[in-house]
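Ligand: magnesium ion. Inputs:
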Amino acid sequence: MFRGGSRGGTILMTIVCIGQPSWAFVRATFAQQRASNTISLPRRHAPRFIGNAVRFLSSSSKDDSTSSSSTARTATTTSSSIFTRSSDATNRMKQEAEHQMELLQDYYSSNAATFSTATTTKPTSWTNPQRELLHDSPTDGFPTTTATTTTTTTIPTLWTTHEEASTYVEENIDTVLFDCDGVLYRTLDLCPGASECVQGLLNQGKQVMFVTNNAGVNRRQLSAKLSKLLQLDCLTEDQMMSSSYSCAQFLQQQLLQLLPAPSSSSSSTSSSSLPPAPPPPRVHVIGSAGLCDEIASHGFTVTGGPRLDEPSSMTREELAAYDFDDNAQVVDAIVVGHDTDFTFRKLAIASNLLLRNPNALLVATNRDSFDLVGDDGRQIPGNGCMVQALEYCSQRRAINVGKPSRELARLVALDHPTLNWSRALFVGDRLDTDIRFGNDNGMKSLLVMTGVTTANTLKGLGGKGTVEEPLPHFIAPYIGLLTKKE
Ligand SMILES: [Mg+2]
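Predicted complex:
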């Protein structure tokens, strides 16, 4: 029997036992049974329950206002069950992010003297992507930064209040570029203050863009998803930069601009004397329908994609008999996006297409190792796993067009020629993609603790980052801090 009661701020408990001592359960149990001062749960869960209960009680006064306002907001904006679920998950994310920040504050403050002299190796001086475009050589389609330099590193500035974060953004930033998953939402659960943050920045006249390595959606789908999740009706497709879009744009630059330009209607040459127009380039896709649609909409013939009607396996005999000789097997590029139906058969066919089309481009929408789903942070394998599988068996190296690649920076520069990179802030939850993309391209970078990166990740890097995993300029628990509290 576990019986709990509150008297003069002291909690007395007796155990009985039925239930799951999760954080949500603790909150619900206290809310429902506070009046009776009696709580029931399985005896084996008592230690974890007590731990969560102590956390709950120590933070309940602070959270009550947040929780109630969040619930009220949810009630007035939508009756959808996914947002009701988001309210609980959002609160849980907020508490976990604040806990991670506390760990970081302790870590950086206790090691401040050591870190002030730490050095790191970084890429050489940054080149503005817009300037790079002006001087780009047509034969040099894949610029890379190879030279490095060693400098003293400054540890990140930790933002823990609305005042310090929002004041910096208000005074120093014109454009905010958001990663999506782990920053604005996790699966369908909103991150704390996400909607208010984006709306607040737009109200201040800031330019807002969304840059995601998710290739499963095209720009229209991404805009619709964000509008629904954030409850904003002012978002437009030209603010969206999904890696499916960057992939299609890259293929267009590499393959379609090499084709002869179509004749104009004012040409004196009769159409009957013109040679037949070349067929559109063929792109074989390992990826989703959204990725295939985006590539097809840019003028390509797409093969592959979701093939739920075909078997997942392929025997040696089947592969030996597979017809690679018809025209359908001539491809100009192979694209690997995130394919949740990735199979041995797809891998075997793509590998042999590369072998038979040695000049075909091999393009990766991103090289992410994993992402998080659910409010307890389960890992879902990322596109990088599939890219590396194909790279290994084909002995080819893929061109990455997602974060942190220069290809993506060049595309952002082309689409937004007036962007002032030095007054832009990139907000993300990954060091190897988001923060590196921001730092490498002359932006300020902000890491939020609602996604992939944990305090332990940062502790492992000490006071200096690496080229692959650089430290951000700023760290905040969640993006809600970027605008002033209402
Ligand atoms: Mg992310």
